[in-house]
Amino acid sequence: MPDLSLPQWQPADTASARAQQHFLEAEGVYDLLIETDPEDLDGPEPGSDNFLLFEDLDAYDETANPALAAHLHYGTDGTFTLATRPAPTFAIAAAWLVARGADQGAFLHRAGHGGAPVDERSAAVAARFITDHARYEQVEHGVEPGETWVMLRDTTSAGAARPFLLQLETGDPERGYTLREGSFASPQEVQQWLETRRTALPPVEQGEVTVVYSPQALAARARTAASPAKGTAAEAAPVPVPVPAGRRAVR
Description:
- The chain is elongated and about 55 Å long.
- The protein contains five helices and nine strands.
- By secondary structure, the protein is of the alpha+beta class.
- 33% of the residues are buried.
- The strands form two sheets. It has a five-stranded mixed beta sheet. The protein has a four-stranded antiparallel beta sheet with strand order 6-7-8-9.
- Helices cover 23% and strands 27% of the residues.
- It has one domain (10-226).
C-alpha cells in the first residue's frame, strides 16, 4: 500500500480529501497491483500523474467490486486531486485509467503480476476492451471467490445483433488474471449461459483485435518455434464450470 499521506501537498477539493482519508483508514484492505509512476526519492513533480490499480481484499462477495482504480494528479500550486473508480474486473479498472491518460501497456505487459493478463488471449480481450470501452455500459455483475462476471451493453450499431457482452475474469495474485468474453442477444441468454456453461462463449461482434504480446510471451513463443518437438495446437476451450443456480447479481 503506497503512502497517501502526501506530506507538503493539500487536497484540491472535498472529493480528493475524502478519497485520501479513505485510503489512510483502509490499511490492509487494498493490495497494490500496479503503480505506473512510483514516487522517486525527490518526491512527485508538480503537474505529474500517478495511476494505481488495487485489489480490494474484502470485496469478494456478491455486492462488491474487487478492483479499485485511482488517479492521483499533482497540481502546480501544491495541491493534488485524487479520483477513484471501483470496478468489477481489472480490465474495466484499467480502461478507466487509460481513459484518464495512463499508458495502456502498463496494464498489459506485466506477466506474472496480479493486475495484468496471464496469457495472450486475455491480453487480446483486455486490449480490445480498453480501446473500445466507451461503447459499453455496465448492466450488472456478480462476484465469487476467484471469479467475477460482468454484463455490459453495446451502445453502438457494431453489436446490434448481439448487444450484450459478457466478460468472465478469474484471478491469480501470483500470475495475473484470465479474461474471456462473449456476446449475446439478450440478458436472459447471458444468465442462462452463466447457469449452465455447456457451450463455448459466442464470439464478440466486431471483436477482431491485434494480440498484444508481453516480452515474456514473445520469448516463450520463440522457444516454442525453435523446438521441433512441439506443435502449434490451438488453445483448448475452457472446461465448463458448474455454477449454482440463482446467483445474485449486482446492478
